Write a sequence for this structure.
DNA sequence: TTGAAAGCGATACCAA
DNA sequence: TTGGTATCGCTTTCAA
């Protein structure tokens, strides 16, 4: 039976109703730091229930210096790759009573600093970077005491913990799979990386080709979205010796590639086979469904939160295996 | 030139360095409520700069009762339909110095209450519901004083402001477009709505068919995702008189429909034309690209924030027009 | 086991 | 125009 007060009940109201001091209310809410008789405890619990009392998170944050908020910096959310991480992180955070606060950069120079600063100013307890910030100094925003982790990122920031997928093995699995189908001209569609970062997918693709004595193919470097995949595939197919297989650097790219191939009247995987990178839901429903190497979203998210709570440890890096998911676009089921 | 203090600077540090009282610091930061000489003001500004001072959001929230956080309740984020709104809202909120705090329900009964409660407990200033909550009482969480708005929602909650798209006109445009192409058997793939809510898309589809004297077709009601679209189209195409056109209740459904049609060896739009609802980026890169009626995401987001700041007004409802985007799947370009 | 009280950082009333 | 100070709701030390 809860009574609706006009003004939200505070801890003082609870104390008064329970006939104890506010200190005791605090003790029962936090299960410490002092013990409370179970009788007293029950009285407090009853009062809380009757008043519908909920602790004021801001007051608590002010006092303890912890908000229970985890800042996550992402370039966008309309992209299943990031959205998958956001959800995985959110679920993991829920079990710890924390919440994810998003800082979206939109990959616009101006918004980048705003996004990160906003998180820091709001007092997040830690930060997860899922974006390559243009200005390295932004990684230091808020001072050195905030636990931070780089999640599945291409750039490396000295002294910062890292959680990522085994891109190298994943890319290798993808390309080797295409090779195993007998393809000899295998193209790659990706994007140039900002700064002088290297795209491991591209590097590995190149390596595998070399290892098998296959001819090199100029990579099509456009942008990390569907449009980029589309343009890249058009480019690749317009060459004198078009590839018979394409390794797409992301699912979105893969989808764009498929569209281009269809437009050209090519059969997938008959004329051109495709394997993509990421393995989000969208890849499963394209036509044909994309064979892809999948990111271990949940595992990485859980690990990221672990890393953040182990603050103080030496910044290490965790690597998780990717998994090849065979669907229709590679030719296995064709 | 900013000095990095070990401990973050507080307003007291600023006051000391500027040789003024903390009150004045407050005045210049908030531009009021009292005026400050421009000379004093400048001294304070300098001190802030030198110390790298940033106001503590929690302390401020405690004092003012406002956090600058807007709670947004969504079922998921790995779905461009919701992600588009999240981004649109985020951008709009940024211009007001507010942030969007997400409460993801995952459409799981248990998480629903947690998600909403977590937002309220964190002290959000207002709430945007983008999900049909199973338990209507959850809409009242946090008391009656929180401004709330329902964003593009199918259910109606008495006394709550609403911002939505003109689903009816949108659906009509979609179906009429198919009719204008000469189709006589037009199917619908959607999903049963929770509770006894009605799916306007389905109702309008039915209406339009009737108006044109076209034969009714049993709708395929599955679920609002790609898988649902797939199953729905299989179902529709397995009937004795399969449709020659399909109205898909969402982009995801549309994508699933396309996959099913391809699997059956049908040509789109040659054998079956498709028009979908929502118009997210994914619809533009399916094969063939989906003709769709598009949600006015940005406009609705902006309006939602306006409504929230007009607290106290009578709860009205804003409706925005949808736009038909013609691409390849309807037959216009075939 | 319980309570009084200091203090987290910021706001704004009331005086000066 | 500027400053002293009470206060927001909560945590926790110290004393009872």
């Amino acid at each position: 039976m809860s009574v609706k007060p006009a003004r939200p009940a505070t801890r003082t109201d609870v104390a008064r109703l329970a006939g104890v001091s506010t200190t005791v209310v605090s003790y029962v809410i936090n299960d410490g730091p002092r013990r409370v008789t179970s009788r007293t405890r029950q009285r407090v619990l009853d009062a809380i229930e009757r008043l519908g009392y909920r602790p004021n998170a801001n007051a608590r944050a002010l006092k303890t210096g912890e908000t229970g908020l985890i800042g996550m910096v992402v370039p966008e959310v309309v992209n299943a790759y990031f959205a998958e991480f956001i959800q995985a992180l959110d679920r993991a955070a829920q079990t710890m009573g924390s919440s994810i606060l998003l800082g979206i950069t939109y990959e616009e120079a101006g918004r980048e600093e705003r996004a990160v600063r906003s998180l820091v100013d709001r007092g997040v307890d830690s930060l997860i970077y899922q974006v390559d910030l243009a200005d390295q100094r932004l990684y230091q925003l808020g001072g050195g005491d905030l636990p931070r982790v780089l999640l599945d990122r291409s750039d490396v920031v000295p002294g910062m913990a890292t959680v990522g997928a085994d891109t190298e093995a994943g890319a290798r699995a993808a390309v080797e799979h295409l090779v195993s189908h007998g393809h000899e001209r295998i193209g790659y569609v990706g994007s140039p990386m900002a700064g002088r970062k290297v795209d491991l997918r591209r590097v590995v693709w190149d390596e595998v080709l070399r290892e098998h004595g296959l001819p090199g193919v100029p990579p099509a470097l456009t942008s990390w979205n569907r449009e980029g995949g589309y343009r890249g595939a058009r480019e690749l197919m317009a060459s004198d010796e078009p590839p018979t297989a394409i390794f797409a650097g992301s699912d979105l790219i893969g989808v764009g590639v498929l569209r281009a191939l269809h437009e050209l009247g090519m059969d997938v995987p008959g004329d051109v086979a495709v394997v993509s990178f990421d393995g989000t839901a969208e890849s499963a429903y394209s036509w044909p469904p994309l064979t892809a190497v999948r990111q271990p979203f949940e595992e990485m998210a859980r690990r990221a939160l672990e890393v953040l709570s182990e603050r103080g440890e030496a910044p290490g890096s965790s690597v998780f295996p990717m998994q090849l998911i065979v669907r229709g676009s590679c030719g296995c089921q064709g």
Observations:
- Chain B has a mean pLDDT of 93.
